[in-house]
Amino acid sequence: EIVLTQSPGTLSLSPGERATLYCRASQSVSSSYLVWYQQKPGQAPRLLIYGASLRATGVPDRFSGSGSGTDFTLTISRLEPDDFAVYYCHQHDTSLRGWTFGQGTKVEAK
Amino acid sequence: QVQLVQSGAEVKKPGSSVKVSCRTSGGTFSSYVINWVRQAPGQGLEWMGGITPIFGSPKYADKFQGRVTISADISTSTVYMELNSLTSEDTAVFYCASNFDGLEVLWGQGTLVTVSA
């Protein structure tokens, strides 16, 4: 089973600052099936990035994803107030045993 | 446009079962894996299992094996998740989701299940 480990657990930043979130897999993951979500309380996860680096429809270009193999990164170039939320990475390769999620990174206002 | 539409919130007694539905609208259904994900209050996302309706053979996460049943009704484009022997720790939002064999993942709106005496 692939384990996804996100770091840091919590990121305390101010609006306008850059946020860098990490997702490390216990074994190589196909970049095609690595996605990032944003989730706010009481809401379903919102797809931000798919295929490790492609922005979903309507996602602002301050969000970017990169990485391959076992190491993936989500960057928010300049935080806006609406960006304070929890972010999850997720591998959804259906050829594998099952889906796995990172444990989440909370981006909170400093 | 494909949508996943889930059944409404449920309140259950400890020891009982809950069955949540997920209907696919606006697209084909039976060839793609439909998954179920649990999210307890304040916690992360947890894969429970999935099914490809046309094949009918579900896969389950080890944690839920023996307590969850995922099934599908092709005639109504609906996938079901039944969880047995409920405890207060099963209070959670349950989501269905699928990548429909693509790179993006589509989610249902979620179903809150509250387990309370």
Structure report:
The complex is a heterodimer of chains A (110) and B (117). By secondary structure, chain A is mostly beta strands. Chain A is 0% helix and 55% strand. Chain A has no helices and ten strands. Chain A has strands spanning 4-7, 10-13, 19-29, 34-39, 46-50, 54-55, 63-76, 85-91, 100-101, 105-109. In chain A, a hairpin with an 8-residue loop joins strand 8 and strand 9. Chain B has strands at 3-6, 10-12, 18-25, 34-39, 46-51, 59-60, 68-73, 78-83, 92-98, 106-107, 111-115. In chain B, strands 2, 4, 5, 6, 9, 10 and 11 form a seven-stranded mixed sheet that branches. A four-stranded antiparallel sheet of chain B has the order 1-3-8-7, with no helix packed on it. In chain B, a hairpin with a 7-residue loop joins strand 9 and strand 10 (106-107). Classes of the chains: A mainly beta (110), B mainly beta (117). Chains A and B meet through strand 9 of A and strand 5 of B.
Helix-strand layout with pairing:
The complex is a heterodimer of chains A (110) and B (117).
Chain A: E1 4-7, E2 10-13, E3 19-29, E4 34-39, E5 46-50, E6 54-55, E7 63-76, E8 85-91, E9 100-101, E10 105-109
Parallel strand pairs in A: 2-10
Antiparallel strand pairs in A: 1-3, 3-7, 4-5, 4-8, 5-6, 8-9, 8-10
Chain B: E1 3-6, E2 10-12, E3 18-25, E4 34-39, E5 46-51, E6 59-60, E7 68-73, E8 78-83, E9 92-98, E10 106-107, E11 111-115
Parallel strand pairs in B: 2-11
Antiparallel strand pairs in B: 1-3, 3-8, 4-5, 4-9, 5-6, 7-8, 9-10, 9-11
Q: Briefly, what is this?
A:
The complex is a heterodimer of chains A (110) and B (117). With 110 residues, chain A is mainly β. Chain A contains no helices and ten strands.
